[in-house]
Specification:
24% helix, globular
């Protein structure tokens, strides 16, 4: 394995088990065609295009049926737009759970001393109340968002350059407007760029559309895959902040066909696992199988020998990736809307809140 996944380090073994090297792939060793099914692109969104248009371009460039982004950016906003490919679209909503960083250029409508401006900016750090703007696609009701960090990077005349690290769903344009109100001078946003989503913040690794075109051409026409492989990350890299659980090869296909995860199928768990924790469920090679909720506390995995251990909320891996070790006579509990709907509903609502985030036009 070329590169390890941090979420799979320091797990506690519950049951000993080996893995069959004839099935599946280590995430960073996937063949390109498999990587295109379970990949993540850290796209550097250009101005003048909607997020949905950019996703459409990526699908066309790579010849894919499905792709999806995390956290919509307005047409005028640039920067990091994570895009999941094919089955990877099921994972990108998880990125909405993490913080985001922006660099914003704004104009103060009157001259303000830098000392006063710095003081007011600090007052906006922490929990704030926000009401979405009128042209937002979400219900206009006041909600609480957290500003983790906010710095004044530069000031020239009435122009200011700011860095904002905030909770997902924060309206930066509205934040700047509110700062202007407190200053009693007024303020408006001119430009906005997203520079970070969770731990993805290395702009040298952001992917431009024309680089993706060149890389895919080299892969398809000249059989050179090195450049394309550098531009597409395994989808598992989006899950580093979610606890990981490893399961047996023999349990993988049963889960992909609708079974819940019982204790005998678990190989290792994180040492601080709590009941009701959201976890990523992985093969022994590090491939994401799906997401689930823990039904047990850490100590229960050593006290009990049977019973359900995790409630499956979303399956990512395609069925028949691993061999079938179960029969139709086995008890298979379907993953219905009742079991998966809550997680999916929360993700869709959060994505809706992100819409028009950073809209310069309002």
């Amino acid at each position: 394995m070329d590169q390890s996944l941090p979420q799979l380090e320091n797990l506690i073994i519950v049951n000993d088990s080996g893995t069959d090297e004839n099935y599946g792939y280590y995430p960073y060793n996937r063949p390109i065609r498999n990587l295109l099914n379970y990949g993540l692109i850290l796209l550097d969104k250009p101005p003048g295009h909607t997020s949905h248009e950019v996703v459409s371009y990526v699908k066309k460039i790579l010849g894919l049926e499905k792709a999806g982004h995390s956290g919509t950016l307005d047409p005028g906003t640039t920067g990091l737009l994570p895009i999941g490919l094919e089955e990877g679209t099921k994972i990108v909503p998880v990125l909405l759970l993490g913080p985001k960083e922006y660099v914003a250029l704004a104009r103060i409508h009157n001259q303000i001393p830098v000392e006063k401006l710095t003081k007011i900016i600090k007052e906006f750090t922490g929990q704030i109340f926000q009401k979405p703007p009128q042209r937002s696609s979400v219900k206009r009701q006041t909600r609480i968002r957290t500003i983790y960090e906010m710095d004044l990077l530069d000031q020239y005349d009435r122009l200011i350059l700011m860095r904002v690290l905030c909770e997902s769903g924060t309206y930066i344009r509205k934040l700047i407007y509110d700062i202007g109100e407190i200053l009693e001078a007024g303020a408006s946003m001119i430009e906005l760029r997203r520079t970070k989503v969770w731990d993805f913040n290395d702009e040298s690794k952001f992917v431009r559309l024309h680089d993706l075109v060149d890389a895919f051409f080299l892969y398809t026409e000249k059989k050179e895959e090195e450049k394309l492989r550098k531009l597409i990350l395994p989808i598992e890299s989006a899950l580093t902040h979610i606890p990981a659980v490893v399961i047996r090869d023999t349990a993988v296909d049963a889960l992909c066909h609708g079974a819940q995860l019982a204790l005998p199928g678990v190989v290792s768990i994180p040492k601080n696992l709590k009941k009701d924790d959201l976890v990523g469920i992985y093969t022994q090679k590090g491939e994401i199988v799906g997401l689930g909720i823990s039904l047990l506390e850490f100590d229960d995995f050593f006290k009990q020998k049977k019973g359900m251990s995790f409630q499956i909320k979303r399956i990512v891996m395609k069925p028949n990736t691993y061999p079938k070790f179960w029969s139709s006579s086995d008890t298979v509990i379907p993953i219905t809307d009742e079991t998966s709907g809550n997680l999916i509903k929360e993700e869709e609502e959060e994505e809706e809140e992100e819409y028009d985030e950073g809209d310069v036009g309002n």
